[in-house]
Amino acid sequence: MTTFHHRRRAVSRALAVCLGASLLTVAAGEPASAATIPTGARSLQSVNLPGSYLRHSNYLGSVAVVGSGSSAQARSDATFTVAPGLAGGAGCVSFQAANGMWLRHRDYRVRLEANNGSATFLADATFCVRDGSASGSVRLESSNFPGRYLRHRDSELWIDPPATNAGTFAADSSFQVTAPWVAGRRSPVIKGLYGDPNIAYLNGRYYVYPTTDGYAGWSSARFKAFSSTDLVTWTDHGTILDLGPQVSWADSRAWAPTIAYRDGRYYFYFCADTSIGVATSTSPTGPFTDPLGRPLVAAGFRSGQMIDPHVFTDDDGVSYLYWGNGYAYGVRLNADMISFDAAQVRTFSLPNFREAPFTFKRNGVYYLSYSVDDTRSENYHVEYATAASPFGPWTHRGTILSKNLSLGVKGPGHHSVVRAPNSDTWHIAYHRFAIPAGDGMNREVTVDQLRFNTDGTIQPVVPTL
Ligand code: FUB
Predict the structure, then answer these.
(1) For atom 9 of ligand 1, which residue has the closest CA?
(2) pLDDT per residue over 404-424, tens digit each?
(3) Which of 150, 225, 276, 298 could form a disulfide with 140 if both were Cys (CB 3.0 to 4.6 A apart)?
(4) pTM, whole model, 2 decimals?
């Protein structure tokens, strides 16, 4: 196990307070700490009980001895994915277990719970990283209760103020961040629960615009954006559109967005309360504003749900909007990108079509790929068709992405496709049930390569973990 080293804050104006055998350093008039924890899979070892690691057991936080001879379950329970703090805040993090649940405190006891999306949950699951009592160690201050720190009392994890058991508090609340007991997977590429990833290459970076998952009924109200130059390391750009304050006609069910660019503006198409809206910005990360003040495609406009937009722009600069659930629709967008001629909407015949149409073009061939079955089913998958025009007629070609139970991949779908710049290398972003314990509302996003046969047909995607 390796130990990560952390920069110590300046101590010139610090007050050193001797607490029994421990030394608690309190900075006066300075930022609380420069300590950080790298995101990704990590384990945390108690400073006071070397060899004991922060873990969960029966959905409660604890510390226990973990070693190379420990069971796979014990090592997994002592491994967390460190993610940027769910409630935000510079230098704040959250800890996700392998089953997708998060460490949070409730009534000061630290527990493992699913994200219910409430502001209280998000704050209770967010810890701000401070310097620990030993060199290179960290302490974790509650975001919701500043002044209380995560510590172990006997073997139980609590958040306590330093006054409690002052003699041992500093050491009991300090942890060495180590390499994970269970080696991290490459994926999900975006840490946390997200679905419906729309991937695009814009202005020299890859961007992913997903649905934020972990909410009953997919009831998240905010859209986020992530970007990367290498499809491996991703930057979280935070909320780019918040339905509550920024969209007058909908407050919930912020689903399945997509992005397009024209003449210096970005157009962000999104689902909200099962209508499709559009918001614009001069930056791919917003702020986005709603120029229409009403849906672009309102619920009830045609049969099926008016959801899952995608905009494809052809080589001649004409953009097309595709969408639908139960029925697949397409229409040419006007040059303003925020209107279309309703009389020109086409309905496509696509075998097994359920939702999430996505169109792209390679070597003069138009591909329309789409999701089949129900996103809550492990059998959710992606099929595709090809055509010689953006409106078809479409020739069904088969399945390109489906479950792989030997890898734990269930319900893969609602994908999008991007071409690496100046190449014939293609990537597919999609969601699957979070591994190992996710479901259709607790999904995670990954990216794999999309490979073509010489005749232009698509090879089945090989999921990599
Ligand atoms: O994320 C909510 C909905 O689930 C999407 O709109 C559908 O495509 C399905 O993935």
Answers:
(1) 375
(2) 887 789 999 999 999 999 999
(3) 150
(4) 0.66
